[in-house]
Design brief:
The chain has 3 helices and 18 strands. It has helices at about 1-25, 35, 45-50; strands at about 55-65, 80-95, 125-140, 145-160, 165-180, 185-200, 205-220, 230-245, 245-260, 270-280, 285-300, 305-320, 325-335, 345-355, 360-375, 380-395, 400-410, 420-430. With about 425 residues, it is mainly beta.
Amino acid sequence: MIRKSVFFLFVISISLILLQNIWAADIPTGQTPEEKANGGSKGISADVFGDKQGVFHPFLIGETIWSSNLFYTDKNETHGFTTKISPGIWIALPATREKLMSLATSGSAPGGVEYSHMQVDSSRRMQTYFLYSPSFISYSDQSKYNHTDHTLEGLFNYNFGFDLSLEIYDQYNIKSNINDDGLGKKFDEYDDNIFTIVTSYEPSQRFKIRFDFSNYFTKFDKSINKYRDRQDNSFSAYIFYKFKPKTSIFLEYEHADIDYDRRSGYDSKENRYYTGINWEVSAKSKGQVKLGYLGKKFHGNANKNQKDFSMEAQIQHALTSKSSISFNAYQKYHETSMTDADYIRTSGLSFAFLQRFTKKWSGAINTSYVKEIYQGSKRKDTIYGIGPGLKFNAKKWLVFEGGFHYNKRDSNYDIYDYVNKMIYLRIKIAF
């Protein structure tokens, strides 16, 4: 069934691209004033190979990492090198150099994502996007754990002529992650997929209404992990009021139905109510902050039901022409892989400072903090992370990166403690 989903996504993506070509005559192409004055673009060869915007964007990312504690254990630490090679290509029609999706699924987050989706703001009538990238991962002294991950994603955005827009996106992954339960050298192998439909309608210049539907599933390969297989169906409704051209306040309701395949006692429904503000004042400042209430109800077990404060923040701001910051924070419930815990009350935040030194050289420092309280268990974890990094833009298409990262988990159960120090080097080639 999962393989059929991949094939279905591929067929849909190609169909949308073909449909885009059929309708291209009616779609604004984002031409420059010079192109319009000359009667059109510079031709298909310039468009395809990226002279201006670019339809096809091949890329290659190579990375090597030295880890002091490869398997995140409290004792008997294993150090070594990991090498990751990720070729890929993304395609956009009409042509653009802006990558239209930046989505990382989270198997523990209800609905499959950590942060709310920020809708694509496109003035074009239609936009399509498709990406495929495998990642070949090898371990210098642990070759039996070598594996290949895959990511396949696509997006379709259409603006109707009466203030109604539709956005559909899907991401499918085949992954293998190191299990950090402290019990030794183990990998979790699984597939996951998130499919989302976003519709919005603007009855006036001040108001906008938005509805989202999302389906997320995760399936594990090994029978020992099959109890974690689940499917989440989520629904969201928003009302926005724009009190400034680029700033809105909003009310939001979210509902998530979390359905496990094998442990029905963990099935639950979450209802979330938020009020918030989002803005994109200029290229220098954009973000979204929302505060509210979260309720979780378990099927057939009212003793586990819980109510709590919930929040989310995503902020990016340029301090000067050469420096900027980003800040993310959340408090919500997560699903748990522990059989003796019901769920996790999670609070997290991350902060990054970026500084451009010269036209080619820039640096950054990233910090993170996560607090996890396992409900139904006595376990409590605190996870810290910090790491400086450097970037060298040798060419527009060639980037070198390197840095250090320190990560620590402090738990009231010693078996879950770990400290890991990493040094990484990365090269990116992208057109």
